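Table S7 (text form). Paired inputs.
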Amino acid sequence: MRVIDHLTAHPGQTAFSFEILPPLKGNDITRVYNIIDRLREFDPKYINITSHRSEVQYQERPDGTIVRKKVRKRPGSVAIASAIQNKYGITAVPHIICKGFTRDETEYALIDLNFLGVHDLLLLQGDAKGPDKSTDPQKVNLHASDLQQQVNDFNRGIYADGDRFEANATPFSYGMACYPEKHEAAPNMESDLRYAKMKVDQGADYLVTQMFFDNQKYYDFVARCRREGINVPIIPGIKPVVNCSQLTVLPRVFRSDIPEPFAAELAKCKTDDEAKEVGVEWCIGQCRDLIAHGVPSIHFYSLMASESVRRVAREIY
């Protein structure tokens, strides 16, 4: 069942979903299964699997020379998505990103996913950190819209080099990102909304937001989207704060404002355990309010927060 079908199958109900991080290189999938097993009781309709580009490390040799080495610290999302979907029967949604991947590599990922029966994707530009293989648009997708075009072409039976093939019986369905507090690269919200509408006009079945902590920003954003003719589901992305440092780290990295009442309570915390309790309490309040407003789904960013997500889900589902 596609994500968009889950989102529209039961009007008035708020679906539960979450995102997982592939294990570090050298670890097996058991840690991923452990997270899913802890959250499975809340009937997740789909599970996202993040994707990460290679990182650059500089290593000093015994002779004093420095070598530049590209390191992939985590496995790709293709195999993990297939393993999850086959083990649990839950729709798996691998992230497909532009940064760090060539168009050919993306094409082979699509071929493998189709073969494995995984047909839901989340298309993203990806983290800018790390080496770029090229800036040639013939070799890489520079923007999420370019990646979207490649997936659309693949669905129509067109390879990246223009050659044609018999289109797959089940086309890929996909969501894309949106930003209630504006993407960092957008000059203004009006520009950001134009790009969001373009994603939908070109085939995105739904949008999922960057994390936010102020629900009013989400409601205002959705209202503006509707006025612009963006009528697909807009899924709120939520993350429980789990340590003291996130008071400053999350706004800096994700450009997400922390409302003053929440920030004031976090500032009082002397330990990460105290911050985690405040984070859970705030997140429960956020989610209850979102459900009262009839959101089709709440999507949890569970990195370092799976236990907090479990506590929140117990209160709201």
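Next pair, protein 2 of 2.
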Amino acid sequence: MKIVTIVGARPQFIKAAMVSRAIDKHNNANSSKIEELIIHTGQHYDENMSRIFFSDLRIPQPSWQLQCGNGSHGEMTGKMLIEIEKILLKAMPDQVLVYGDTNSTLAGTLAASKLHIPVIHIEAGLRSFNKMMPEETNRILTDHIASFLFCPTSKARENLSREGITENVFQVGDVMYDAALLFGEKAEKKSTILSSLGIKSGSFKLCTFHREENTNHIEHVTGIIKALLTIGTVNSPVILPLHPRTHTYLKAYNLLQAVQEHPGIHLIDPVGYPDMVMLEKHASLILTDSGGIQKEAYFHQTPCITLREETEWEETVLAGWNQLAGTDTERIISCYNNSKIGSYIDEYGSGNAADKIISYL
């Protein structure tokens, strides 16, 4: 069986690492082999957002490296669709595998569908119920096209059922949890990020934000930054790995200098996955607008504040690990003052979601 896997962004690299490992495990134990070829769309084209993850996670090098990271959503998706179709016509795989909800996901799905190649969607069924998010459109369209849908939670499976999608739907757990278990242990042994930043476990907060619905609005960015300026102190700073998009908008909104000069905020370049895991594990609190990092916060037992009005991971809120604060300064500070340890979530599996996926396929 030949599978073409399509990736383009940080969360997809992490998920692909676990599934590629499961494919290798299968191939070593069985005479029927799975051949995996990888297309990297270049959606994350920054060195620290892309290539470093392939190195850190030991993902097989892409067979095709596209450069589709610039432009509007339509332009980016269109470029990917054109280039992916060319590759699929030559490779003619048995299946195309996509992850999550990015433009790379949708472009790969559409290209495969037009060529009548079955699509495998890993992390199917997630819904924010906010169609202003480009990711929500990508999720819905991909799920309604895909031939095999692998859900991380029972809620995701219920979402698909309500939309009439019940065939070839499998609840397998979360491949991100597989990664958290594997790389959490490795990070403790190999990462030097805490010592290099001069911080100790539990003595800092971690913040990431990059979504367009935040960065593209000055009032949203201003609300977040004002909260960070209040929360961050010399003895308990906010560590802020700066996404390229966030850096651009902080500069455009004349907020970058205030952040750089504040003694309670430490701006750093984007970091590789093991270093990010180490920061997540040892932070006293995480503030983020990332869907993946919300879950990773729970995996590493760190309270989280989500800088959005909704989440795809409702179970993290219900269990008390995650609070929805939006971008209002006072709400963020109030959530910070009320952050706490939550209860156990019995949804994400036992660390073998990738193995289950390959077994089903």
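The CA atoms of residues 84 and 111 lie 6 Å apart.
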